[in-house]
Design goal:
Blueprint: E1 6-13, E2 24-25, E3 32-35, H1 39-43, E4 57-64, E5 67-73, H2 79-88, E6 98-100, H3 106-109, H4 112-118, E7 123-127, E8 135-138, E9 144-145, H5 154-160, E10 162-166, E11 172-174, E12 177-179, E13 202-206, E14 212-214, E15 223-227, E16 231-236, H6 243-254, E17 259-265, H7 276-288, E18 293-296, H8 301-310, E19 323-327
Length: about 325
């Protein structure tokens, strides 16, 4: 796997907008910095303030020498917010080389169609074949969301201007940027758990054989970027497969290198996720030597509190418009 010289990750879609967050200039070693879309940007009438929604989209810009690769990792819940924030943050949709949809849930694929229709050429869209299987969700009070991913089909992606790339294996997108492919479940406390009774709260899926079963989100995949002299930056969509499992998978792909940063959804805020998983995850991050952590989207307030308290020099609060920079 190649290494990138420089990496910039911009938060396009996230649950929070916070115009009071300050800049972050390194961790003592100057290995990363975080710039913010702040108070002045929001109050300046010449600017368009960004918006938040329950979803995730990260813009990844990787540079090797004079060459650059731009990847859109997930597309948020709606095209309205994704498009608005691309304009507000002065990002050119036509500069994006590749799209990765981490898994087939609407808060990660929802903005894909409006995005593709804005781009003036065909764009490859990589995901897992299971992302298109029918999905159902049952809440603790019995409410159900029926076939909630029906808008996400190969035909619709192609019709909007995408070119679907289906793979269960890691896919090298270019010099040091790679998808994780399907993530093995190795950590005992991570991954979906069945309801204690049939049809109880949880996520379900209709399999290729027609069986109605627990949705184990096997289509979940992350992104790993190897930054020269710094280590691995790992991106997760929702981490249904487990954020620790995702880190382990990243190290299997890129080698046993330092974990420079982990950011994205950690799935620790979901109602059926055991509360003790938060402390177990923080402990695992410490053991793995994660240098910087930004829990986002579905991570939950409990996780933010635990990481801020347990890893105070590593924790960075997320917000739409934040840009993280790594490398020289």
């Amino acid at each position: 796997m190649f290494q990138v010289d420089r990496l910039e990750i911009t938060v396009l879609v996230e649950n929070w907008v916070d115009m009071l967050l300050g800049e972050v200039e390194g961790d003592g070693g100057g290995l990363y910095s975080v710039s913010r879309t702040g108070l002045i940007h929001h109050f300046d009438s010449k600017q368009r303030p960004p918006q938040a929604e329950f979803g995730l989209s990260l813009l990844v810009k990787a540079t090797l020498g004079r060459n650059r690769l731009v990847v859109l990792f997930d597309a948020g819940l709606t095209g309205t917010v994704l498009t608005h924030n691309l304009i507000a943050l002065h990002e050119d949709a036509n500069s994006i080389d590749h799209v990765v949809v981490s898994h087939g849930h609407p808060d990660h694929f929802g903005g894909i169609f409006e995005f593709l229709e804005r781009v003036q050429r065909k764009v490859p869209v990589v995901t897992h074949s299971d992302a298109f299987l029918p999905r159902y969700a049952v809440m603790a009070d019995g409410q159900a969301s029926l076939f909630y991913n029906q808008a996400f089909t190969e035909a619709d992606v192609e019709r909007s201007g995408g070119r679907v790339v289906l793979t269960k294996d890691p896919l090298e997108l270019g010099f040091g940027v790679c998808t994780t492919g399907q993530i093995p479940r190795q950590t005992d406390f991570e991954g979906p758990r069945p309801s204690p009774f049939r049809g109880g709260p949880g996520l379900y899926q209709v399999g290729p054989d027609g069986t109605f079963r627990l949705d184990e989100v096997w289509d979940e995949q992350g992104l790993v970027i190897d930054v020269r002299d710094e280590g691995l930056v790992v991106l997760t969509g929702c981490a249904h497969a487990g954020v620790v499992n995702t880190i382990i998978r990243a190290k299997e792909i890129a080698g046993d290198k330092p974990i420079r940063a982990v950011l994205g959804g950690f799935h620790l805020g979901f109602p059926t996720t055991p509360k003790e998983n938060v402390d177990k995850t923080v402990a695992a991050f410490k053991e793995l030597g994660v240098k910087m952590v930004m829990p986002m989207h579905c991570s939950g307030l409990r996780a933010h509190t635990a990481f801020a308290a347990g890893m105070p020099t590593s924790y960075v609060q997320p917000a739409v418009g934040s840009s993280l920079r790594f490398g020289k």
